[in-house]
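Hi support team,

I submitted a single chain yesterday and got back a structure, but I'm not sure I'm reading the token output correctly. Could someone confirm the output below corresponds to the sequence I sent? I've pasted both exactly as they appear in my results page.

Thanks,
R.
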Amino acid sequence: MAKIDLKLVQELRTRTGLGMLDCRKALEEAEGNMETAVELLRKRGAAVAAKRVGKDTQEGLVHAYIHPGSQVGVLVEINCETDFVARTEELRNFAQDLCLQITAFKPLYLKPEDVSPEFIAHETEVFKAQLEGANKPEKVIESIIKGKLEKLFSEICLVKQAYLRDDQKTIEDCVQDLMARTGENITIRRFARYQVGA
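Hi R., thanks for writing in. Yes, this is the structure output for that exact sequence:
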């Protein structure tokens, strides 16, 4: 096994926020390939996150943000398992990023399950009307409508939106990564966006 350069390990640590030992092991397994190592760490992180999902999240923080000009304000509540994680700089930074995300992208809901059935039914009817006369089989039309709904959710649901700092990830992915790094279940409980005149 080739010796892994410490600079490469530090670069991976900077990119992922994970420990030096985890980064070194991933790079060794990936034979020095940075992208493969990142992917390995994300898969391991997802496995860790999946194990934590059922854990109680009674601790956490409420973060407030007022956008320059004082026309927009955001409150977000993030829950975790311990007050130790709730007080970390990492969780506070994530809360701040979430507030910026909510300010910029104006999500209406936290997750797809929160969207009212009436709203989904209305949008489905609109999509069907758009596809009238398309001469496509019913299965294809259903598939197209499903894709359009998923795209809609990626615009109006916070956890499905592309992360403003890395559009290759969703907010949901960022929460999973944070769970992997902290070793705790972390949930975004709720948010509120206020805008003058809206």
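A quick pointer for reading it: The chain has a mean pLDDT of 86. Let us know if anything else looks off.

Best,
Support desk
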